[in-house]
Amino acid sequence: MKFLQLATLIGAAAALPSESHSPRQTCTSPKLRKSWSKATTAEKTAYLQAAVCITTKPSKLKTYPNATLHDDFAYVHARLSAPQQIHFFAGFLPWHRFFVQVYEKALQDCGYTGTALYWDWVADSSAPSKAAVWDPVTGFGGNGVDTGDNGIRKRVIDGPFKNYKPLYWNADIVPHWLSRDWLPGQDGQPEIGGAGYGPAAMADVNAQTIYDEFRGQLEDGPHAAVHSGVGGGFFGLGDLDPIFFLHHTQVDRLWWLWQQRDPRNRTFAYNGFHNTDDGSPGAAVTLNDVLPMGGLAPDGIVRDYMDIKGGKLCYAY
User: Fold this and answer.
1) What is the dihedral of CA 54, 137, 154, 250, to 10 degrees?
2) I need a surface site. Which of 94, 104, 130, 296 has the fewest CB within 10 A?
3) Quick one: which H or E segment has residue 56?
4) Integer-rounded Cα radius of gyration of the chain
């Protein structure tokens, strides 16, 4: 009798849909996020105008006199990066998905009516220095130059952010001109480290079938290669170059594409362990974990940022 009762309970539990098998399709009119290279000139201009607006808008956090809203984004990202609350563990992907959403809202508060756009660096990996994102008129400007007035950092001298002076270097007060320092090409490889985020590199990432193994390969591989390839503040995340958000919208898109290869099992797939101060694995992550946003927006919950057409999200790629 007890065996039959136990079998009945097991059967009932197996019949219940697990969370990973139950994507919540709650949005009916998702807005399309497109690549920078596919956006119209008008869309690019509107995005850039709003991004410049964020670099001039007064700080919401009021952490330092004359800080801007863009400084707030850099400050929050840096403060949560040490200790590691947003990198090198499972929360990397949902937290940055949330961060991009908060930035998208800030763009819209500056009059932008579009969505977050992404830099498809996989497509541009064979010649990344020629990518449309670096155009001085319809892009973010190009590489930095050693002008002698920016410390040891190469100053961006063209594009809409050529006169932008970030306040923070990581979480420290170090006013400086926006900087980039592209990794030069070597042994026939493209500059800006293109081989590190090309199709072959992404094939290795996409071969992972377990969430945290996929996350680790993506974060430590192509994602990191873009940061180090662009260099300057982008490498150390020192000043959060405005192109950071196109980079992380692309990271978000690649995660979504991975989810779509098996949406029933991957939409809510989430595993791994929290970081600890001594580097040992902490508690296991859960979909109920908090995603801190440092005052830029109310904190979130992981489960609300797993499905781009459910929870707190409503967009498509």
Assistant:
1) 60
2) 130
3) helix 41-56
4) 21
Q: Are 192 and 229 in contact (CB under 8 A)?
A: yes
Host H or E run for residue 290: strand 290-291
CATH number at residue 153: 1.10.1280.10
The length of the chain, given as a count of residues:
317
**CA separation (Å) from 287 to 63, 85, 109, 114, 230?**
31, 15, 30, 30, 33
Does a structural domain hold residue 295? yes
pLDDT at 24: 56
Q: What are phi and psi of 145, to 5 degrees?
A: -130, 145
CA–CA separation, 34 and 119 (whole Å)? 9
Which residues are 290's β-sheet partners? 301
Q: What tokens does 165 get?
A: 């002076």
| CA 258 from centroid of its chain's CA atoms | 15
Q: How many domains does the chain have?
A: 1
Range of 79's domain?
28-316
As beta bridge partners, residue 68 has: 58
Q: Is 274 within the bounds of a domain? A: yes
Decide if 62 is inside a domain. yes
Task: Report if residue 127 sits inside a domain.
Answer: yes
CA 154 from chain centre, in angstroms, equals: 24
Element (H, E) at 81: helix 69-81
- Look-up: residue for tokens 């996020």? 33
Whether the CB-CB separation of 266 and 211 falls below 8 Å is answered with: yes
What's the CA gap between 252 and 217, in Å, rounded? 14
Do 270 and 306 meet the contact criterion of CB atoms below 8 Å apart? yes
Do residues 310 and 25 touch, judged by C-beta distance below 8 A?
yes
Q: For 114-160, how does the pLDDT look when each residue is reduced to its tens digit (9 = 90+)?
A: 999 999 999 999 999 999 999 999 999 999 999 999 988 999 999 99
pTM listed for this prediction: 0.91
